[in-house]
Protein 1
Amino acid sequence: MTTEAKKQIIDVGDGAAIPRKSDRGLFTAWRIAFFGAIGTLTYLAYTKPDPYLNILKFVPDGIMVTFQVTLGAIVLAIVLGLITGLGRISKNRLFNGAASLYVEIIRGIPLLVQIFYIYYALGRIVKVPAILSAIIAMAVCYGAYMGEVVRAGIESIAKGQREAALSLGMNGRQTMIHVILPQAVKVILPPVGNEFIALLKDSSLVSIIAVADLLRRGREFASESFTYFETYTVIALIYLIITLFFSKIIGVMEERVSVNK
Amino acid sequence: MSINKRRKMVEATEIIKIYGSFRALDRVSLDIYDGEKVVIIGPSGSGKSTLLRSINRLEEIDRGTILVDGMDLYDPKTDITKVREEVGMVFQSFNLFPHKTVLENLTLAQTVVRKRSKRDAEERAMVLLEKVGLVAKAKAYPANLSGGQQQRVAIARSLAMDPKLMLFDEPTSALDPEMIGEVLDVMKDLAKDGMTMAVVTHEMGFAREVADRVIFMDAGRIVEEGTPEHFFTAPNHERAKLFLSQIL
């Protein structure tokens, strides 16, 4: 009965295929892929422990590093995205201009180049561990995309909400904090989940700057044992399992949020 | 419910509002006195909502001046939030905060803007919910209320700020017919309590019963203005006669 504007779904399109109950095909495919991957890994490790079990023993350190980079980068990217999103809708021309420029520049440079660039640029000023520079590079890149998600989320909240808050005497900041952002979060959450999975996969790029993530550990093992095919089979399956695992969690979270509306 | 002619709550002079090449408001002047109930009617697109929304500056005007309780809306020294604290507004689409309960809808601005304690704000909120007959819904979320209930909560939310003036922008236009009465009743009670009100509405019965003055707008101008008796029985302007013949 309320004439509240329809909540729009933001779909940034990259990231992962989130298995939703409404999409039967994907839902079934998720099960086949997830349990198939686990089954295959188990089977290989059991029947051919050399090299498969050895690879599996060698890479867990790398998985931890991959998680560290992903988690660190996503948290930073959300903070950056919030600032950028607010900047993009700000009436302050300096703030708005800076945020827009940031988005334009970052979106125009490949992530791999950004990682190299930030690693060597930071290296000129301060000595930071490679992993930190990797996290910063990923966050700077994803912060720009996250900014657009935040902006779209804020803009999806009906104009009447802002007007109601203003007419009660709230200023712009109070309106944003108490009325707009709490509602925007629900709209923003699913695409942030998507970005998280995209970031998880893209984190493999940091192996290029001496960060011992999952892919890097795999490469180290392969080049010593000359088992390239076997190693990359395992690495691919592990990435697949992790990604599918998180896409499932995000799918469940999305459903919870939409129920609570 | 007497009108204090010496105190103007609203003093709008020669205001002009232009959208592109369209004059939504064309040199409109309007004074509203303390305690007065003004009902604004007219065909859609006549500028009545724009006029109402310009009174708390949700709509920016292009020329003219607007004073609310003596404060000039366009004086750079005027803090617009201070003006809005004193001016309640009720919207056609209710605009309750969906993520907050009914009670929280009523206490939010009280605590954030008026800096009242949570306890005081809740006390005030419950008094107003009593008044609009929705005490039982204090813990409910807006989505679980009917349209009529939502609009009554929205009125109570505005009143919680203890405004000096209330603006109603087609408050019953989005309601199912059977819910219009309950909202109008709340507004009539408010009028009896002496609230200064400006109401844009299509409810002619309400205008007749409550208005001290009826204003008829057409094409961005006020074309007829007078008491309900005068307006509904002997309007001067052809456009007003036509409008009445269509709507009554």
Note: The mean pLDDT of chain A is 89.
Protein 2
Amino acid sequence: MSSDEDERIPLPERPEWADVKPIPQDDGSNPVVPIAYKEEFRETMDYFRAVYASDERSPRSLGLTVEAIKLNPGNYTVWHFRRLVLEKLGSDLHDELDFVNSIAKSNSKNYQIWHHRRWVAERIGIEAASLELEFTKEIFSLDAKNYHAWSHRQWVLQALGGWENELDYCDELLEEDIFNNSAWNQRYFVVTRSPLLGGLESMREAEVKYVVKAILSNPGNESPWRYLRGLYKGDTHALIHNPEVSSVCLEVLKEKKNCVFPLSLLLDLLCYGLQPNEEFSNVVEALRPSNSGPPEVNLKKTICSVLETLDPLRSNYWIWRKNNLLPSSEV
Amino acid sequence: MESPSPMTSSATITQRDQLMVEMKVAEIYHLFASLPHHAQTLMLELQRDNHVEFLTKGLKQLGPNYGVLDANRPWLCYWILHSIALLGDFIDCKLENDTVDFLNRCQLPHLATTYAAVNSLITLGGERALSSINREKLHGFLLRMKDPSGGFRTKIRRSSAIEVDLTWVLNRRTSYVKINVVVSDYSYMPKIAEAARVVWLFLLCSMSLADLSLHLVLRSWLGLYLCLPQLPTISFPCGEMDVRACYTAISVASVLDILDYELVQNVGNYILSCQTYEGGIAGEPGSEAHGGYTFCGLATMILINEVERLDLPSLLEWVVFRQGVECGFQGRINKLVDGCYSFWQGGACALMQRLHSVVVGQLHAKVKKTVENTDSIQTPNLSDLENVPGASSTGSGGMPITDSVLKLSDIGFSFIKEQIELDPLFHSIALQQYILLCSQVQDGGFRDKPGKQRDHYHTCYCLSGLSVSQHCWSKDVDCSPLPKAIFGPYSNLLERTHPLFNIVLDRYHEAHDFFSGQ
């Protein structure tokens, strides 16, 4: 038991609560999924129900929500009521951020906390931007892929600003962990949406260089491969016309014959109409197992067949792709 | 950049965590491989009795640690009842009645818990459970949860259109009353200004009343002055808006046969804005593609007949790539395997099997478009894809539907009536292996991964994923799966679940007959 719990005075013994009649939970006579609440939990919620029912938006209600939230940060009704009380009392919202800090660190995967935090930051306005960016940074130092924290950070950037150092921050995170797909996603978010950058098309060349380097350092890392395709989202024409794309695939395959990602990208390039050069055909042909009979007439089919054996977990998918290649005459 | 080996200290956090899990899983698979045949069969057996016991016990009593799930008790009901139904078991009559009473007693101001309660009642089935659902009220509730942008929010905020707020301000010399009138509905403004003068006069006469009663008197008086019997309350959606909220709203409306175009309006645009460059769907626009949201987004788009608007080939590739060396699914790229994604990702794969013609149509359109554009530089966009043969002319079930006669609530029903044209595109046996050997807890219940504790959420979604992977080879909903589709003894076979609602199929049919006949 922590000293906090030792010091807790039960609510019925606190003089300031003497006038309140607690309301017990009405579960009916035969409740299902009943929870054997701890006494402290039951008592706090009984008093909470009382102030909620009388809609008492007072300082003591605010204090009570703190106790209730600490016992169960997932109770959306308590959070909701807390916002009503904060509004009524005109409380200092910076203090509120501090309170959320203390709760969020140990409950960072909880929907309600992040929703509440957004509400507070929205009311504080642009001066909250730097605080919120700093706060999410702290969360990421514990869990760099926290989904809610990333959503919150994106909301902060879009609603309150603070884009200046965001690309550098992505760099920093990727330097730490090049496999962090959340950081790749954030990078994409910044490149495509930052008002300080020129948008995807103007950033594309530099980003391709960045991502190619990342691919070559770890060809088995799916994140940069998806990112590379993402840089050409909706523009397959530009994708097949950048020689850097097919050459990074071939370069990887020469070193690492069993790598799935470059092969699947090559397959798509061919499907989109890329005319393979001799090097391309040679690299792919070299991947065919020697005992697999006569070469397929079609390079796309060859890649599908190679993937089918190389990637047995997805063999159904690669067979399906092979069966649904558009016959060349139709293209 | 040097390629760090996962074995060295320069490995990143992602690599180290991944390696740890791979080693644990490999250990289990090695042990399994080393066992004699009969011991293997034993290890693969679904521990039905233990699972039912774990689940039923939870329905009857939960320990104090469940306090953090206090606001999610309808969810606990759904996870438990759906799991028991998948196992082909039932709860006794009394417990069933108690559950109906409990669910009807729960006030459900939250969209996600509403979904859980409705699915629970349908899973219980029978006249008493089904007729306890007030569909008209729910329709109104869902409409109120709709954000002007088209998405849904999880909670509603009800406030009085006019709040009269009195504060006694104590001054050293005099005490006076500060009146705050907060008006949420601005159409009352002119009248309020006029009323303010009269309020003051009224106050002078009632200084003797206590604070609270004065407040009440004033409120009702103001209502009287404005010729309103009660001060009007207005409610507006609040709470988080995301793909999950959209799914729970649309799923509930569809299964209760109350889905209409008003509810559907702009939902498709919202979901579409959440499909990411990776191919999967995120919780909000700009976020990372995620298994749970991908299932929710895809199912929603099918239910509102707008699935062709998604980039389905990219979505499909993203999903099949989430199955990893551990044989189970991960939720996001480079994250760890987790048993619950057996349903979220496996279920999305099962949905894709029924969208075959639309996916192939899009795949070919992409190809043709690029080739055509090689000469005339144009970027293909998604709206072009709607002209693909087999896309706009067919509904989600591949069945011809003209928009004028399409009844939205029928989509969930017709979707599973069609024969499946396509074999599953994920590895269904491997998935069953992960669920049975790594997620199953022999004493009952399922878990995220080895080393984690069992819980009801993972039990529900591991069993749902197991059911999906057992049935995904049967072309027809009425056919039993062949023995080779079942990993382990054939007695492992679970009941079939509706892939859009995740409700056991015969319970779904009972509800469908009940509501469509009303």
Note: Chain B touches chain A through 89 residues (CB under 8 Å).
